[in-house]
Amino acid sequence: MMPPLTSKGKQSRQAHAPALNRAKARPSFLNSAARLHLLFYLLLILVCAASEAAPPLAEASAGAATSKESGGIREIIPDRFQKRYERWKLEYLSTRAGRAQWERYARDKSFTLTITVTEAKGGGAGTDQYRWDESGRLIAATITLGDQIDEGYPSPVNYPVISSLSHAGPYPGITGSILAATKMAHEFGHVNRTAQTDAQLFQLQNRLIPVYNRILLSNGINVRDPRLLELSGQMTGTPVKIGQDRELWAEANALAYLRERCPDDGTYRPMFKAIRHAIEEYAKEHIERFR
């Protein structure tokens, strides 16, 4: 899931979650990845607490899909967004990786993937409304794309790939349909990974993360609180670690799209150099998933 983003040279249509713009997305300021990671997370949960919203992780629900869901891909796109969505989709399907993932879900009659576009997400996107059958097999999910995903870049914290597409050095920033398709690939990565994740653990994490966040905000940000240690044990990780794990799997899928769409030659070499630098800075423990 990517937080809503603002675009360079363009005022956001709404109040967005913390994000870095193009001028700040480069690693020149990366003197303390761990501290920035914690600050970024705390800002997110403060926003969530203020609005009584869900934590910055994908939501999930148990139970069967509705009777109207018959498998395949359901595209629910408002008319005003249809043309831009078709451009983004065409770009995503211009790669073998994109076509393979699209066909995988389009042909699966036992799984329903819903894709929609909304102004509420702005330059971000999210994947939620997961559903499982009684055996724990994922049978439904919804990808929600912001109407401005062809603009704006997230923080390098948890998003080392997409953040590196902003302007830096000798190459122009990646914008337009390629940026939008990269964000789509990220969301497809969430679906791919969740389908491989233990359903009970995933749902338990989503139930306990808001509890953990409320305690953390009320105890003076004391991560050694016995209650938090017990919760992290049940979840097999803290919300920071869980969120990072989920987002980095999705980022790995975004990188697979980029490697096919933008060959690592003279034109795009600086971009891939920036991606490698960000991965080493923020995702060193998970670097194998980006090989």
Keywords:
4 strands, 8 helices, globular, 291 residues, four-stranded mixed β-sheet, alpha/beta
Description:
This protein has helices spanning 33-51, 82-92, 96-106, 176-196, 199-218, 226-235, 239-261, 269-282; strands at 72-76, 112-118, 125-132, 138-146. The protein has 291 residues and is α/β, with parallel strands linked by helices. It has one domain (27-290). Strand 3 (125-132) and strand 4 (138-146) form a beta hairpin. The radius of gyration is 18 Å and the shape is globular. The two termini are 22 Å apart. 41% of the residues are buried.
Concise account of the structure shown:
By secondary structure, the protein is an alpha/beta fold.
Number of helices: 8
Q: State the distance separating the first and last CA atoms.
A: 22 Å
Protein structure class: alpha/beta
The radius of gyration is 18 Å
Q: In the residues, how many domains can be counted? A: 1
Strand order of the largest sheet: 1-2-4-3
What's the helix and strand layout?
Layout: H1 33-51, E1 72-76, H2 82-92, H3 96-106, E2 112-118, E3 125-132, E4 138-146, H4 176-196, H5 199-218, H6 226-235, H7 239-261, H8 269-282
Parallel strand pairs: 1-2, 2-4
Antiparallel strand pairs: 3-4
Helix pairs in contact: 2-4, 4-7, 5-6
